[in-house]
């Protein structure tokens, strides 16, 4: 089981948000976003921020760092190391199962991620046999796109998705996110897409739009 940083907004959480960080960061990276997202009237939430394993990253000269998978190629279709992606998806599944054991079923869990973490969130979410409340992919793309159609489940494809990207992103070009959005839509997914004039980061407008989307999920649940 991956080590995690956790924040509860109140006792006895009714919902969980499992949030995966980007390359080279750790579970503390997005913890400060919690108070910025919260709105009055929301149910009690548990935010779970896991630490990715440390592994060598080829495109970073083989330097070991926290990463959900190795990066071997800049091309979208070859960018993510499939073995690492599948290992991380399995680790995420274990965390989702732990939330279920703690009283929060997958139907009340949002799977979120930034950059590499968002790639894992998208890849895992579309393949789930038991549905999630939603998938959040920020400044990211869908890895293993060539196998997604064959491995996606009806339940996974029925999960609502929030995707956001910076139009000035030099790390993960917005075109990668847009192509992934279009691929998911072609499979029948509902994708709420947002673009912002920012680099590889998060902005206040994005947080506001995400909170709006999360509010809809809580009301629907």
Automatic annotation (TrEMBL):
Domain of life, source organism: Bacteria
Keywords from the named record: Hydrolase
Pfam family, one: Abhydrolase_2
Coiled-coil region: none
InterPro entries in the cross-refs: AB_hydrolase_fold, LYPA1-2/EST-like, PLipase/COase/thioEstase
PANTHER family for this protein: LYSOPHOSPHOLIPASE-LIKE PROTEIN 1, LYSOPHOSPHOLIPASE-RELATED
GO molecular function terms attached to this record: hydrolase activity
Family statement drawn from the similarity comment of this UniProt entry: Belongs to the AB hydrolase superfamily. AB hydrolase 2 family.
Source organism (scientific name): Arenimonas donghaensis DSM 18148 = HO3-R19
Protein name: Phospholipase/carboxylesterase/thioesterase domain-containing protein
Chain ranges of the Phospholipase/carboxylesterase/thioesterase domain: 16-214
